[in-house]
Amino acid sequence: MRRLARGDRLVLASHNAGKLKEFDALLSPFGITLLSAGALGLPEPEETGTSFAENARLKAEAAATAAGLPALADDSGFCVRALGGAPGIYSARWGGPAKDSLLAMTRVHEEGGAALAADPAAWFVAVLCLAWPGGEDAVFEGRVEGRVAWPPQGAFGHGYDPIFIPEGETRRFAEMPEAEKNQVSHRGRAFGLFREACLPA
Fold first, then answer.
1. What is the fold of 9-198?
2. Are strands 71-80 and 9-12 parallel, antiparallel or unpaired?
3. Which of 124, 130, 171, 183 is the 20 to 30 Å CA partner of 145?
């Protein structure tokens, strides 16, 4: 598997400023210069995959091909057992056109109903894909188990964090400072695998 080297430029296949800031902080100690797909004017490909891995690969390969540079993409979501694994790859869409997190969390609560009350099991998944121009890629998956808790609480995090309590914790993700959450989160676990395999020593 190819590794990145210090001084390399890497495209983050995202137009999300918050995600760019998060990954820039993670990658800067390794001497990697991160560029966003948005800043390079790259279009956002349609996420037509049927899994987190397919969507991450689709985004990374599109950015790597368009920019002629290695590209990193992530796809992540929230899965609830009582909802058959939904919202899953459609997690962002559950918030409607405005990607309203409160709307998305309320849908989980209301559509889960009695089934969710009886079985609150849930999990977060994050998949990172590193793609190189020419087609080579590598995929890394992180997952964290836990349960849904209602109502939403906590001022940190984003998305479904205010209704998710990870296994072994009494606090929601949104009640954990970012550095602490990153040590146990799905994205933190996926990044750990990516770091071991692809970043300079």
1. Maf protein (3.90.950)
2. parallel
3. 130
